[in-house]
Amino acid sequence: MQVQVFRSPELWIIVAGYSAAVHVGKLSPAIPVFRQAFDLSLLQAGLALSLVQAAGMLFALLIGAFSAHIGLKRCLITGLCALGLASSSSLLIDHVVSLFFFRFIEGLGFLLVTLSAPAILKQICAPETMSLKMGIWSSYMGLGVCLALLSIPVLFQYFDWKSVWFFLGIFSFLLAFCCHRFVHVARPSTSFDFSAFWDTVKVTIRHPPIVCLALIFACYTSQWLTMIGFLPSIYLSHHIRLELAGVLTAGVAFVNVVGTLTAGYLMQRGMKSKQLMIFGFSMMCLGSWLALEDAIILPFALQYLGVIFFSLFGGFIPTVVFAICLNCAPRANAVASSFGLVLQVSALGQFMIPPLSGLLVGHTHDWSNIAWISTVLSATGIVIVTLLMTRYQKIA
Asked: C-alpha angle with apex 82: 79 to 52, nearest 5 degrees?
């Protein structure tokens, strides 16, 4: 029985997503260490956080369309190997430029994994279980970041950051081998055809529901990454130890997993997508203000409850976006390109918002200004959700 579980392709695909998200989240608790090692400003720290999204910002749509023509499994394994290579090359990082370079390569690997995995799941999962499976898949970011936030500060007590990065890279290589061994999907029936590839790109960017989902997802991910990325630094500014700050932030990331799984269950039970997303954005806005209000006005317990609400109910949004994206792709071979467009627009937001937030906080010396950014993004998300669901009532 245990052997059969480990042979399950869904297991390795989901674990690959969690592993990729660990590489995204591992930098957040390491920012204080990196700021000291490389003399990083808050703007540079924000850039380091968001640079992992640069590959997605530039290439997600094209790689998504390309993967459908060269093979999803091949893209998944290549992505894991890219993560392994970039992370295990930590011994070569001796300057902020090399840090940024390998962070970009990690972003490329993350992109390949997160583009190909949902399309593979659609191929191998029964239709009646897709909402629940997508809820589990959608938890990859929250759980992966949670694992990073919990483990990295502890590991830093025994190892330097280069050793930790190296072992994370080796783990990615091992996962690539397991996916090669246990994941079996249909291969492309024909050789690569540029005209078919370009047609897939065009039909994707001209499909309004996918464009709207991309904007909605960007409104969610950019503010979530900003909050989670800077939260350990916020807690350190309140004289909380790094280890405790990591645990507190990991708790925030973990409840995001609970939110994604809950949304999958609620969708399986028939709850409307529109209600879940509008509620999620509303709670992110409210939670950000509670979380970042001055400690003189609100006790820390209430501030922490605010950031819990922010992450928990915000977790409704990715599950709904991914589930709708699977069903609203313009055609069967455009699923990966649809996710590519969603991730590309999202990556643009994640690339821009953290550095701008760091610049704003560095100029004003007031962390609560991040709540204004959350408010604008949440309001924009609600407007787009309303427009999308009004125009396409079948997906509401």
From this structure: 85
State phi, psi for 306 to the nearest 5 degrees: -65, -45
Q: In whole angstroms, what is the distance from residue 346 CA to residue 348 CA?
A: 5
Q: Rounded to whole angstroms, how far apart are CA atoms 229 and 232?
A: 7
* CA distances (Å), origin 108, targets 55, 70, 137, 174, 237: 5, 17, 19, 18, 32
Residue-range domains of the chain with CATH = 2-182+193-391 (1.20.1250.20)
pTM of the model: 0.77
What lies within 8 Å, CB to CB, of 144 at 6+ separation is 17, 18, 19, 20, 21, 22, 23, 24, 25
Among the listed residues 229, 252, 205, 221, the one whose alpha carbon sits nearest the alpha carbon of residue 321: 221
Segment-wise mean pLDDT, segments of 10 residues, the chain, 396 residues: 60 89 86 79 74 80 77 89 92 81 90 86 75 77 82 87 92 92 71 74 89 94 86 78 80 88 86 92 94 71 90 93 85 81 87 82 82 93 94 72
DSSP letter (8 states) at residue 216: H
Burial of 62 (0-12, 13-18, 19+ CB in 10 A): middle
What pLDDT, on the 0 to 100 scale, is given for residue 328? 84
